[in-house]
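To whoever is covering the structure queue this week,

Two jobs came back overnight. Logging them here so there's a record in the thread.

Job A:
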Amino acid sequence: MEQKKYTNGEVTIVWQPKLCIHAAFCAKELPAVFKPKDKPWIQPENASTADIIKQVKRCPSGALSYYMNIDGNESTAE
Protein backbone atom coordinates (compact mmCIF):
# COMPACT_ATOMS: atom_id res chain seq x y z
CA MET A 1 0.00 0.00 0.00
CA GLU A 2 1.23 3.46 -0.87
CA GLN A 3 2.45 5.52 2.05
CA LYS A 4 4.29 8.78 2.58
CA LYS A 5 6.50 9.66 5.53
CA TYR A 6 7.21 12.99 7.20
CA THR A 7 9.60 13.50 10.11
CA ASN A 8 10.67 16.15 12.59
CA GLY A 9 13.78 14.12 13.38
CA GLU A 10 12.28 12.53 16.49
CA VAL A 11 8.98 11.12 15.23
CA THR A 12 7.95 10.05 11.75
CA ILE A 13 4.34 10.44 10.60
CA VAL A 14 3.20 7.80 8.12
CA TRP A 15 0.27 8.71 5.86
CA GLN A 16 -1.60 6.11 3.81
CA PRO A 17 -3.69 8.18 1.37
CA LYS A 18 -5.94 5.29 0.32
CA LEU A 19 -7.19 4.87 3.90
CA CYS A 20 -7.93 8.56 4.44
CA ILE A 21 -11.64 9.40 4.80
CA HIS A 22 -10.97 13.15 4.95
CA ALA A 23 -12.59 13.62 8.34
CA ALA A 24 -10.09 16.49 8.74
CA PHE A 25 -9.54 16.03 12.49
CA CYS A 26 -5.83 16.51 11.86
CA ALA A 27 -6.19 19.78 9.91
CA LYS A 28 -8.82 21.22 12.26
CA GLU A 29 -7.09 20.27 15.50
CA LEU A 30 -3.40 20.70 14.60
CA PRO A 31 -3.36 23.12 11.63
CA ALA A 32 0.28 24.10 12.17
CA VAL A 33 1.27 20.57 11.06
CA PHE A 34 -1.56 19.35 8.83
CA LYS A 35 -2.06 21.84 5.99
CA PRO A 36 -4.06 20.27 3.14
CA LYS A 37 -3.50 23.21 0.80
CA ASP A 38 0.31 23.20 1.15
CA LYS A 39 2.98 20.92 -0.25
CA PRO A 40 4.13 19.02 1.63
CA TRP A 41 0.82 18.99 3.44
CA ILE A 42 2.29 17.48 6.62
CA GLN A 43 4.87 19.73 8.31
CA PRO A 44 5.92 17.98 11.55
CA GLU A 45 8.58 20.56 12.38
CA ASN A 46 5.75 22.93 13.38
CA ALA A 47 4.68 21.12 16.59
CA SER A 48 6.07 19.12 19.46
CA THR A 49 6.44 15.37 19.14
CA ALA A 50 3.90 14.91 21.94
CA ASP A 51 1.30 17.03 20.12
CA ILE A 52 1.88 15.13 16.88
CA ILE A 53 1.46 11.74 18.56
CA LYS A 54 -1.70 12.88 20.33
CA GLN A 55 -3.20 14.08 17.04
CA VAL A 56 -2.20 11.06 14.98
CA LYS A 57 -3.90 8.81 17.54
CA ARG A 58 -7.16 10.69 16.88
CA CYS A 59 -7.22 9.75 13.17
CA PRO A 60 -10.51 7.84 12.73
CA SER A 61 -9.50 6.00 9.55
CA GLY A 62 -6.04 4.80 10.53
CA ALA A 63 -4.56 6.66 7.55
CA LEU A 64 -2.12 8.34 9.93
CA SER A 65 0.32 6.42 12.08
CA TYR A 66 3.69 7.21 13.56
CA TYR A 67 6.90 5.74 14.83
CA MET A 68 9.67 7.07 16.97
CA ASN A 69 12.85 7.32 14.92
CA ILE A 70 14.93 5.69 17.66
CA ASP A 71 13.03 2.40 17.57
CA GLY A 72 11.50 2.25 14.07
CA ASN A 73 8.33 0.50 15.31
CA GLU A 74 5.21 1.93 13.73
CA SER A 75 2.20 2.71 15.93
CA THR A 76 -1.25 3.11 14.47
CA ALA A 77 -3.90 5.52 15.63
CA GLU A 78 -6.13 3.83 18.17
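Job B:
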Amino acid sequence: MRAITDAMVRLLIGAPLHSDGKLTIVSLATEAGLRRNKLTHKHTGLKDLFYALVKAREPLTETVPEATPARAAKQQQDLARVRAERDDLRTQLQLMARIVHVLEIENYRLNETNRILEGQLADRAAVPDLTRRRRT
Protein backbone atom coordinates (compact mmCIF):
# COMPACT_ATOMS: atom_id res chain seq x y z
CA MET A 1 0.00 0.00 0.00
CA ARG A 2 2.86 2.39 0.85
CA ALA A 3 4.54 1.55 -2.45
CA ILE A 4 1.38 2.50 -4.33
CA THR A 5 1.01 5.88 -2.60
CA ASP A 6 4.69 6.66 -3.10
CA ALA A 7 4.33 5.76 -6.78
CA MET A 8 1.28 8.04 -7.02
CA VAL A 9 3.25 10.93 -5.62
CA ARG A 10 6.17 10.35 -7.97
CA LEU A 11 3.89 10.17 -11.01
CA LEU A 12 1.86 13.24 -10.02
CA ILE A 13 4.93 15.40 -9.45
CA GLY A 14 6.50 14.17 -12.66
CA ALA A 15 9.44 12.27 -11.19
CA PRO A 16 8.93 8.59 -12.07
CA LEU A 17 11.65 6.08 -11.21
CA HIS A 18 10.40 2.85 -12.81
CA SER A 19 7.79 3.77 -15.43
CA ASP A 20 7.19 5.96 -18.47
CA GLY A 21 5.62 8.71 -16.28
CA LYS A 22 2.15 8.64 -17.89
CA LEU A 23 -0.77 9.15 -15.56
CA THR A 24 -2.32 5.72 -16.16
CA ILE A 25 -3.00 2.69 -13.99
CA VAL A 26 -0.46 0.68 -15.99
CA SER A 27 2.24 3.27 -15.25
CA LEU A 28 1.17 3.41 -11.60
CA ALA A 29 1.42 -0.35 -11.26
CA THR A 30 4.84 -0.39 -12.96
CA GLU A 31 6.02 2.48 -10.76
CA ALA A 32 4.82 0.66 -7.61
CA GLY A 33 6.38 -2.63 -8.73
CA LEU A 34 3.04 -4.43 -8.88
CA ARG A 35 0.93 -6.13 -11.52
CA ARG A 36 -1.95 -4.06 -12.88
CA ASN A 37 -4.63 -6.45 -11.58
CA LYS A 38 -3.53 -5.77 -7.99
CA LEU A 39 -4.66 -2.17 -8.48
CA THR A 40 -7.80 -2.94 -10.45
CA HIS A 41 -9.06 -5.75 -8.19
CA LYS A 42 -7.45 -5.58 -4.74
CA HIS A 43 -6.67 -1.88 -4.16
CA THR A 44 -9.66 -0.32 -5.90
CA GLY A 45 -9.80 2.55 -3.40
CA LEU A 46 -6.26 3.59 -4.28
CA LYS A 47 -7.06 3.20 -7.98
CA ASP A 48 -10.08 5.50 -7.58
CA LEU A 49 -7.99 7.97 -5.58
CA PHE A 50 -5.37 8.03 -8.32
CA TYR A 51 -7.99 8.67 -11.00
CA ALA A 52 -9.52 11.45 -8.88
CA LEU A 53 -6.14 13.10 -8.37
CA VAL A 54 -5.37 12.90 -12.08
CA LYS A 55 -8.78 14.35 -12.96
CA ALA A 56 -8.41 17.15 -10.40
CA ARG A 57 -4.95 17.95 -11.74
CA GLU A 58 -5.90 18.25 -15.42
CA PRO A 59 -8.12 21.37 -15.24
CA LEU A 60 -5.39 23.20 -13.36
CA THR A 61 -2.94 22.73 -16.20
CA GLU A 62 -5.51 23.86 -18.76
CA THR A 63 -6.50 27.04 -16.91
CA VAL A 64 -2.97 28.37 -16.51
CA PRO A 65 -2.83 31.42 -18.79
CA GLU A 66 -0.05 31.52 -21.29
CA ALA A 67 2.46 34.32 -21.03
CA THR A 68 1.70 36.94 -23.65
CA PRO A 69 4.15 39.55 -24.87
CA ALA A 70 1.96 42.33 -23.47
CA ARG A 71 1.88 40.66 -20.07
CA ALA A 72 5.63 40.13 -20.14
CA ALA A 73 6.18 43.78 -21.06
CA LYS A 74 3.93 44.91 -18.18
CA GLN A 75 5.82 42.67 -15.79
CA GLN A 76 9.11 44.16 -17.00
CA GLN A 77 7.73 47.68 -16.43
CA ASP A 78 6.52 46.72 -12.96
CA LEU A 79 9.90 45.20 -12.18
CA ALA A 80 11.70 48.35 -13.34
CA ARG A 81 9.35 50.51 -11.23
CA VAL A 82 9.86 48.37 -8.13
CA ARG A 83 13.64 48.43 -8.60
CA ALA A 84 13.57 52.24 -8.94
CA GLU A 85 11.50 52.50 -5.74
CA ARG A 86 13.95 50.18 -3.99
CA ASP A 87 16.92 52.31 -5.08
CA ASP A 88 15.12 55.48 -3.96
CA LEU A 89 14.37 53.93 -0.57
CA ARG A 90 18.01 52.88 -0.18
CA THR A 91 19.11 56.44 -0.89
CA GLN A 92 16.60 57.79 1.63
CA LEU A 93 17.76 55.22 4.18
CA GLN A 94 21.39 56.28 3.78
CA LEU A 95 20.38 59.94 4.18
CA MET A 96 18.37 59.16 7.31
CA ALA A 97 21.29 57.20 8.75
CA ARG A 98 23.58 60.19 8.22
CA ILE A 99 21.04 62.52 9.86
CA VAL A 100 20.71 60.21 12.87
CA HIS A 101 24.49 60.04 13.16
CA VAL A 102 24.82 63.85 13.11
CA LEU A 103 22.03 64.19 15.69
CA GLU A 104 23.74 61.65 17.96
CA ILE A 105 26.97 63.66 17.78
CA GLU A 106 25.13 66.91 18.53
CA ASN A 107 23.29 65.27 21.43
CA TYR A 108 26.58 63.98 22.84
CA ARG A 109 28.13 67.46 22.61
CA LEU A 110 25.10 69.07 24.28
CA ASN A 111 25.24 66.53 27.10
CA GLU A 112 28.94 67.24 27.60
CA THR A 113 28.21 70.99 27.67
CA ASN A 114 25.44 70.38 30.22
CA ARG A 115 27.80 68.37 32.42
CA ILE A 116 30.36 71.16 32.31
CA LEU A 117 27.75 73.81 33.14
CA GLU A 118 26.31 71.71 35.96
CA GLY A 119 29.82 71.32 37.35
CA GLN A 120 30.30 75.10 37.27
CA LEU A 121 26.93 75.60 38.96
CA ALA A 122 27.84 73.08 41.62
CA ASP A 123 31.00 75.10 42.37
CA ARG A 124 28.86 78.21 42.79
CA ALA A 125 26.46 76.32 45.06
CA ALA A 126 29.12 76.41 47.77
CA VAL A 127 28.08 80.02 48.34
CA PRO A 128 25.18 80.09 50.78
CA ASP A 129 21.86 81.13 49.34
CA LEU A 130 20.70 83.95 51.54
CA THR A 131 17.35 84.23 49.83
CA ARG A 132 16.23 80.89 51.20
CA ARG A 133 16.72 81.79 54.84
CA ARG A 134 13.65 82.78 56.76
CA ARG A 135 13.32 84.83 59.79
CA THR A 136 11.55 83.32 62.66
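Note for Job B: Helices lie at 2-13, 25-32, 36-42, 44-63, 69-124.

Please reply-all if you pick these up so we don't duplicate work.
Q.
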